[in-house]
Amino acid sequence: MKKILLASTALVATTGFAAAEMSWTGSANMGMKYSDNGSTTLHNEIDLGMSATGETDGGIGWKVEMGLDSNVSDSTTGGGADVGSVSISGDFGTIRMGAVDNAATKVGLADVGYDLIGLDDAAELGRGGGTEDPDLQWDYSADSIALRVSVDSKTDDMAAAVSWTSGSLAITVAHAAEGATSGTDATSASISTSVGGFSVGMMATAASTANQDSTGLSASMPVDGLGTVTFVTSANDTDAKNSYGVGFSKSLGGGATLKGGYGSVNGNDVGDIGIALSF
Description:
Largest sheet: 16 strands, antiparallel, barrel
Order of helices and strands: HEEEEEEHEEEEEEEEEEE
Strand content: over 45%
Shape: globular
Strand order of the largest sheet: 1-2-3-5-6-7-8-9-10-11-12-13-14-15-16-17
Helix content: under 10%
Low-confidence stretches: 1-17
Radius of gyration: 22 Å
Mean pLDDT: 89
């Protein structure tokens, strides 16, 4: 009886796997981080992502995603299972529920460093209008136009973004609005383009909350021996000082990239250097 039960269980499990395609992706990093507010520290991360995809008889696609992460800094370890998401796709676009993205983050600025040192934080301060935890997302695209809407069903916070691309030129406009809690809203816009190996990106936010208007600029170019070098500057009405800095990114092959950055974030010197892995 036990053999029959085991065989039946294996058959059911095999049938379930056959109905979906499963895949794993991952990233990791290791290096040193510096801040003039503290000492130099060692830091590494491991992030794994699992996804399963399938399609109904009616042609509606579905996808399940979940992540695992492990972070280590100065002998302090943290990590665990990230909240996942479930989505369905069809002619109506893609509807995703769970741990989803705030649509306002479609507007953003580049950062530098193997673990990112935060040069973009000042420019991105008010773009979300306080809508930080959406649980529903809708994406739809047609030709060169892409639309994203996100909603927090608990607070009625909402955000929407529309992007237009033509060759290397990309323009995105986003608006985020909180529900009845405070009524904070923000409108952001970004534009980026590239010519040859040189690329530039700009963003700006106008927020209804005082001192959260912001701007940012990034520029990248190839430099012999360093790979791609990126300059970033950003500011807002809250921070006493502007943020600025420079970083580099050099491919080592095999999914490994050497990265580093150094700059000033609201008057504090920060930097890092290390290796980022993708697999």
